Amino acid sequence: MLLQADSTRESTVGSVDGVTDAGVDAGDVDIVFFSSISGNTARFVEKLGRPAARIPLYPKDAPLIARRPYVLVVPTYGGGSLGPAVPRQVIRFLNDERNRSLIRGVIGAGNTNFGEAFCLAGDIIAQKCGVPHMYRFEVFGTPDDVATVHEGLEEFWKQQP
Amino acid sequence: MIDKLKLVSHVDAINWNKIEDEKDVEVWNRLVNNFWLPEKIPLSNDVQSWNQLTPVEQQLTMRVFTGLTLLDTIQGTVGAVSLIPDAITPHEEAVYTNIAFMESVHAKSYSSIFSTLASTKEIDEAFRWSTENENLQKKASIVMDYYQGDDPLKRKVASVLLESFLFYSGFYLPMYFSSRARLTNTADLIRLIIRDEAVHGYYIGYKFQKGLEGATQERKDEIKDYTFNLMYELYENEVQYTQDLYDQVGLTEDVKKFLHYNANKALMNLGYEAMFPKSVTDVNPAILSALSPNADENHDFFSGSGSSYVIGKAVNTEDDDWDF
Description:
Distance between the termini of chain A: 38 Å
Helix content of chain A: 25-40%
Mean pLDDT of chain A: 85
Shape of chain A: globular
Strand order of the largest sheet of chain A: 4-3-6-7-8
Low-confidence stretches of chain B: 305-310
Strand content of chain A: 15-25%
Low-confidence stretches of chain A: 1-17
CATH superfamily of chain B: Ribonucleotide Reductase, subunit A
Number of strands of chain B: 0
CATH superfamily of chain A: Flavodoxin domain
Order of helices and strands of chain B: HHHHHHHHHHHH
Number of strands of chain A: 8
Structural class of chain B: mainly alpha
Oligomer: heterodimer
Mean pLDDT of chain B: 91
Strand content of chain B: under 5%
CATH class of chain B: Mainly Alpha
Number of helices of chain A: 5
Order of helices and strands of chain A: EEEHEEEHHEHEH
CATH architecture of chain B: Orthogonal Bundle
Distance between the termini of chain B: 52 Å
Number of domains of chain B: 1
Radius of gyration of chain B: 21 Å
Number of domains of chain A: 1
């Protein structure tokens, strides 16, 4: 069991090939995810053990550019009326038409204790992009969540043209 | 007496224009935006519903809420305050003062419910019960002991287990009533408390993990053992407390699943893997729906168990058309 905060693992998740003027190539990954510095979503993705790329946290970071179809993993935290549920970094990522055209599904993270806001960002993105909101998990997911999503994605990509 | 609690020894003027941990600002803003007061909830609309409950259900409700009042009082007066001297950043200290105040709002909001629904005699009886119930008093004293100890990380563990686990034997009841369209305004108020506690548990758990980052393996092992031992101790007591309350209405087993489910999330807030397997965390879907209307199983695209999954209709978007 790993105890360190997940922010320290940022460099171990994702497979970034290189930085260009246009942005950072996400590489040959089928998962793109956003995770705040508390790193819960990063930890879930890490447990999936699949190649993944992390959407950069800060505006000064070069934008991420997806190269192939992917599923987006996105958290919603806190509920209430604090602006949009979708993290601004994710909006920036999806505003790039190249990225938007390659999204195939969304997986939401959150906590049912946030009530109506539970995984709300996933709902909004699914609707906006016309893709399924495939799964919801809480905090960084239980081992059952990880197994279900891992196997589910395996099957899903097999069925994709 | 809380003679071991100390104050911060030195204070500089807090500068919110110089931030060391952006999580402090994010959580401060979140808590401020989530701020509420019980006076905003039309509790009096529940009077008719209250009168339709059986005397046993009414008494159970009063007891559950005095139990929750005790926990919120502890967290407001001792728990959140005890974390202040251990804070790493001045903004973290400020967040704890916000948490402490909000716990006092929670504690007071139960009194709003009581005064709206019950007689003075019923209120006094419920408060007397809360001081006489051994298992409630035991859970209070277990947590209070750790708050008075001298280990900052252990205090955070106790705090997260309180925020994210110990409340839930109580929160179950208003969610249960809500799922049956009873005391729905009271349930709205409780959902606001639940939302606050979720942010508190998340933040204190995050600070706990930050504090553990640089520790030796030996220290990490010690804290992990401590956490699971405390969880077992609290869980055992919590099961007895649940029996005291819910045996008479036949809901104990249902509540226990809710306890397991929340114990897992409390552990995850602290960065530990879930402890209870799926077979004992299958919370009644009606309770989950009362908690969050999005929490039904129909969203599991992978298992095919749900009747359908949500697929939005495609919306044509321009590049700048993301004004969510």
